[in-house]
Amino acid sequence: MKSRGTKKGDEPLSKRPHLEPSLPTDPALYSGPFPFYRLPSQLGCFSLDEQRQYHGDARALRYYSPPPTSSQGPNFDLRDGYPDRYQPRDETVQEKLDHLLHWLMEHRGQLEGPSNFSLRGPGWLAGATVTWRGHLTKLLTTPYERQEGWQLAASRFQGTLYLSEVETPAARAQRLSRPPHLRELMYMGYKFEQYMCADKPGGSPDPSGEVNTNVAFCSVLRSRLGNHPLLFSGEVDCTDSKAPSPEPPTCYVELKTSKEMHSLGQKRSFYRYKLLKWWAQSFLPGVPNVVAGFRNPEGFISSLKTFPTMKMFEYVRNDREGWNPSVCMNFCAAFLTFAHNTVVQDDPRLVYLFSWEPGGPVTVSEHRDAPYAFLPTWYVDAMSQ
Ligand code: 0WD
Ligand code: CA
Q1: Does residue 217 line the site of ligand 1, with CB under 6 A?
Q2: Cα(89)–Cα(301) distance, rounded to whole angstroms?
Q3: Do residues 336 and 224 touch, judged by C-beta distance below 8 A?
Q4: Residue 201 in contact with residue 63, Cβ under 8 Å?
Q5: pTM for this one?
Q6: How would you class 48 by CB atoms within 10 Å of its CB: exposed for 0-12, middle for 13-18, buried for 19 or more?
Q7: How far apart are CA 126 and CA 370, in angstroms?
Q8: What is the CA(173)–ligand 2 centre distance, in A?
Q9: Interface confidence: ipTM more than 0.85
């Protein structure tokens, strides 16, 4: 492993020369105007079934079906079915970008060329960054994150920059020693989705069934941040057939649960920390609304509230300890520039590992093949045909 030395620099990254050894993450450095972010458009989708098998269609898409808004509010028991009707995904399987690469492989003919997929033009993919939406969410929130670091592996192949998260040793240790109450809390989030979604348009939720977290519907989106074209995929909870703008991604709804809030202090901290994550996750794919279910200490959802993504910043606009969307997006753009300038060689077996821990800058190390190389031979071979 070759490690590059770190060097401090105060000037914005964009003004610094090629091959920067590290990238600072201090929010004060990124407080310029909001950068250009192209309205995200959906290029396609795929589904993962009960066995986590890939299907190039929308079979796993569910339909938003909230309870009637009349009485005292819902009374969803989020603990119901735990653990006997729970089929959790096997978290020891590190899927990396595989499902997204499967989609890319099957659509490679349509991703280039001027006539398909509305005006992307030849070579579009070669100039793009490909990743999961969740990885971009982590980048957006980095200037404000004080607890969890991250590692992103990067490779350039046929021009395209691929970014795939690597589980940090700390995250791995946490996953392996996750206390029982946190396992149940994870289940409760998925159970909420089951209370709020139907399998068919106009249908009703069926909370008597199993919760199988292998099942997922993923949207594949195109956008651009500054001069960085993006192709990313994100899991979508459901679609609202009655949405004012019925095309994807504006018909999609993100579902979340959170603790009931009583004090002003609880609300402040919800706006500062949780809303930042909700905003970043839904802003990236252009999902317009997050529907929150608030749970009481007994594990029941007692109220629902819709948070429009574009209004979330209002809750912290006048808070000195709040977050700023411009900082998030400017940092992400700076990271993409940093990554593009670092990962110069086109080689699917060469990996640059970007590492970050709260309080420090993003650093880079260089690796070849296992264990960090993440572009599978089936993908490299298919794309090289
Ligand atoms: O390789 C990795 N390190 C990861 C892979 C980390 C995160 C996700 N994934 C994969 C999975 O295949 C998953 O199906 O990406 C897919 C979803 O990607 P995303 O939309 O980019 O992920 P994110 O925005 O972080 O999470 C969206 C939802 C979560 O909902 P909540 O409301 O809790 O944010 O995807 C689920 C979860 O339901 N989810 C995952 N599903 C499978 N594996 C994972 C994961 N590691 N993380 C979150
Ligand atoms: Ca969700």
Answers
A1: no
A2: 24
A3: no
A4: yes
A5: 0.94
A6: buried
A7: 24
A8: 24
A9: yes
